Amino acid sequence: MAVTRILITGSADGLGRAAAETLLGDGHQVIVHARTSQRLTAVQDLLDRGAASVVGDLADLDETRALADQVNQLGPVDAVIHNAGVYSGPQVLPVNVVAPYLLTALIHRPRRLVYLSSGMHLGGRDTLSGLDWTGARRTGSYSDSKLFVTALAVAVSRLWPGVPSNAVDPGWVPTRMGGPNAPDDLRLGHLTQEWLATSDDPRARSTGGYWYHQQPREPHPAARSIPFQDRLLAELAAHTGTPLS
């Protein structure tokens, strides 16, 4: 397995940090991301081990654009794991959907893309009317956001056929978001992302999948609907002013 350079958003804690630790231990180059410079103290041990860092608040369009610039200035990345996410509040759509879309559009095209979904996406609503992508008002649920990002992952697999793009359900794991009593295995919660980002396994090099613990599952039907994908991409392009080409 060749050494790869991997960006992991939201890697100051939880699954993102766990993936960064494992990938560094496996000899890969890792770029960790924190919302603020102060939050980088949470990953100082990873920086001491050679990780690079980028900073930006994914709820803010300008900071997200600046984050993409920071990544591009570091040089080409082989994979991006779009891990950052919030569970509730008005920032659900900006952080969980708009930010991965904009980073996908602006970061120089990597070799692989991984987007964090959730089993809760199956309860998401496949409607885009009345959504406030700015986060000024809460108009979308966590389930909605994870349906949208799953559709984004599948759409990218269609539009960029040479770039494996997949969505992952990490399970309900004991992180700060999941809570201490979450029943799933924490190691399995980040194993699939690492595998999709780095493995030479032919299955890991496939595209357009929705994975749970390295096994393919069928996502919400809307995630595979080309008309729905196209409407979603059009909404996000209009909001950000940046089309996905």
Give structural attributes.
eight-stranded mixed β-sheet; alpha/beta; 245 residues; globular
Could you give the order of strands across the largest sheet? 3-2-1-4-5-6-7-8
Given the C-alpha coordinates, what overall shape results?
globular
Q: Give the termini distance in whole angstroms.
A: 30 Å
User: Class by helix and strand content?
Assistant: alpha/beta
Strands, total number? 8
Which radius of gyration do the C-alpha atoms yield? 16 Å
Note the main sheet.
Answer: 8 strands, mixed
Strand content: 5-15%
Q: Which stretches of 5+ consecutive residues score pLDDT under 50? A: none
Mean pLDDT: 94
Give the helix proportion (percent range): 25-40%
In short:
The chain has helices at residues 14-25, 44-48, 61-74, 92-106, 142-159, 186-198, 226-240; strands at residues 5-8, 29-34, 52-55, 79-82, 112-116, 165-169, 210-212, 215-217.
